[in-house]
Every structure is written in C-alpha cells, then in structure tokens.
Design goal:
The chain is an alpha/beta fold and about 375 residues long. It is built from twelve helices and twelve strands. Helices cover about 45% and strands about 15% of the residues. The longest helix has 20 residues.
C-alpha cells in the first residue's frame, strides 16, 4: 500500500510585503517542499494577510472593518486547509496579531483535532505575557509544541507562563548570501530595518554624524520603509548629511545581497527585538555588526566575539565601536570570521534536524 503523504499547513503572513515573519515562512515552505521529494511532505500555505477579493477592495480603506474582513477571510481559508492537513506550523506574533489572528485560529485548529506547532516571534513577548497572562496562557497551553527562534523568547515563556518551549533557529539563506573577505573596513555603513520607533533609525543617523566627522568620506545606506520616513529624512537634512546618506526604500529579499556587498559594516539600533534576521544576513555576508543589546540580540551577538553591543539609544558608543572597527581591521576580520562560523546553526541542514521530527506529533485536544 502506498504511504500517505503528510500534509503540513503553514500559517503566517506571506510576501508581499517582505516582513521578517513572511520571509521566514516562505523559506520554511520552500525547504519543506524540497524535502517532500524524499519524506513525502506536502505543504499548504495559509496567509494571515489574506488577499481581499475585488468586491471587497474598498474595505482596505476602513481600518477597523478591514481587520475584521481580513480575519474572516483568513479563518475561511484556514478551515479549507484544515480539511486536508495533518499538522499546522503557525507563525504568531503578539498584541493585535495574537488576538485577531492567533486566538481564533487556535480554537479552530483544535476543534478540528489537528496537531499544531506554534512558532512565536517578537521582542515584546515578555511584556505581552505579563499584561495578558490570564487570557493568553489557556490558549497557548493547547499548542502541541511552542517553538521560539531564540533562548530569549524561550525564557519568557518559562518565566511568565510556566510553559516549556523548544528553540528552532531562524532560517538564514547562507547559500544566497556570499561571504566577502575584507582586509580593511571602509566607513561604509548599512542599516536594514524598517522605519518604526522600535528600530530607532534616529540613533544610527546620529551615530553616523559622529563617524563622518572622523571620516568625511563615510557613507550610510538605509534600506527599509515605514511610518517615520519623513522624520528620518528631515533629521538627515538637519544634520547636513544629505550628500552621504542614501535611502534605498524597501529592498526585496532577493536583491538585498547586492547591498551587503557594497557596504562594510552593519549597524542595528533596535529598542525592542528578538532575533533579527538582518544580523544573520550581515554575518553571512562578512559585515561586522554593531548593535544595541535589546531583547534577544545578546543571544546572537556575543560582544567582542561575533560583533559589538552597545546600550539602547547610545549613539555615541555605537559611533565609537564603528570607528574602532575601521581603525583596527584585524579585529574586524576576527569578528567577521567568528560570526560566519556561528550562523551555520541557522542553515536548513541544521534546522531541519530539529523541525522535521517535531512534525510527527500526537495532537493535544481541547478539554
């Protein structure tokens, strides 16, 4: 008798837009499809960012109603997928996403008696758990497995909710990003984060102002988009940096490698974060990283070993660390070498040995 294929339903935002969770979900789907040639795996994608039909395009202009329509469309698509699925791999974030998407979806999944791995992401998890613990713990406890991309989130689940989680590292496309050996590190800085308050691009621009005073030839590339675009452009103008700062806008995941090859140092100034994939991309591309120590970042950046860490908002310390890399190229080479070795744990060949065995779960039913 022919063995029945195992069907995995991946629930997540999917591109476009090219957010971190969407990119990660697409990577997992593609890798599992490739594995399916050997292990009889089939994959169904269910978008939490559901596509609105033409008849409902007008709803996109009504914020509250748009959210409701998206939720209903998503749950309908999930219902259809659950009829054919054996196990659900669910990417979740917190706050509004959790209540509008994850909470109702978890109820539906368990009513269908399906196995579910809940892959949790987001630097604000601990605060969310502390604020909504009585509401969220009962539904999170019904997941067959809670997975996190870092020890930072694993600890938040344990400390606040008393729930054990397993770490499944974030996938980094090491084959897409080419390591470029650099004998010197020019004052060419790259930021790849969206223009939102939690990523504090202001801090990077202020640090760059100091760096440029030491190195007039310095350049800063900023890839991303978001609500603070006009404010950031105004800050650049007010600091007389227009001739040395380039805004690239949103750069697709397929095109970002070209940017990494043009710059020599990666900077990140998150105020809240878990495990930023852009740091792993910089590692794989040979760029030393200078980052704030927000959230889970110290779990992937070991200060002085794989990169440099500074306190949140400390643009002066960020500038000094960048200057040190430029002035001490042997140190930069050591950090880059250590970093690229470290990020091999985020390669699919390692991650799949953790993930695929977890897909053979026995479901935990609702009471």
């Amino acid at each position: 008798m022919k063995k029945k294929n195992k069907t995995i339903c991946i629930v997540s935002p999917f591109p476009p837009p090219f957010g971190g969770m969407a990119i990660q979900a697409e990577k997992i789907a593609l890798h599992l499809l490739c594995e399916g040639f050997h292990d009889k795996l089939e994959v169904i994608r269910v978008k939490t960012n559901a596509d609105l039909p033409d008849a409902l395009r007008w709803a996109a202009k009504v914020p509250g109603f748009r959210t409701l329509v998206n939720m209903m469309l998503f749950l309908y698509q999930l219902h259809k997928a659950l009829l054919k699925s054996d196990v659900v791999y669910f990417h979740t974030a917190f706050f509004n996403f959790f209540f509008w998407i994850t909470y109702p979806a978890m109820i539906l999944i368990k009513l269908y008696g399906k196995k579910v791995i809940l892959s949790a992401r987001g630097g604000g998890a601990r605060l969310f758990f502390q604020k909504y613990r009585p509401i969220v713990k009962p539904i999170l406890s019904k997941a067959d497995i809670i997975a996190t991309p870092s020890g930072f989130l694993k600890e938040a689940f344990k400390d606040v909710l008393g729930i054990e989680a397993v770490v499944i590292p974030t996938l980094a496309d090491l084959h897409q990003f080419q390591f470029h050996h650099r004998d010197v590190f020019r004052p060419l800085l790259l930021s790849v984060r969206n223009f939102e308050p939690i990523y504090d691009i202001d801090c990077i621009i202020k640090a760059f102002k100091i760096i440029r005073e030491h190195f007039p030839q310095a350049r800063l590339g900023i890839a991303g988009s978001g609500s603070l675009k006009s404010e950031l452009e105004s800050l650049v103008s007010s600091l007389n940096l227009n001739d040395s700062v380039m805004f690239y806008g949103q750069v697709s995941h397929k095109e970002i490698q070209e940017l990494y090859s043009k710059y020599d140092i990666s900077v990140n100034a998150s105020r809240v974060d878990n495990l930023p994939g852009t740091i792993l991309e910089a590692y794989a591309s040979g760029l030393p990283v200078v980052s704030t120590n927000a959230g889970g970042i110290p779990y992937i950046v070991e200060d002085g070993v794989t990169g440099f860490l500074v306190n949140i908002g400390d643009y002066e310390a960020m500038a000094q660390k960048v200057i040190q890399l430029i002035e001490e190229p042997e140190l930069g080479k050591t950090l880059a070498k250590n970093a690229v070795q470290y990020c091999k744990i985020y390669d699919w060949e390692h991650v799949k040995n953790i993930m695929i065995p977890l897909l053979n779960l026995t479901p935990r039913p609702l009471p």
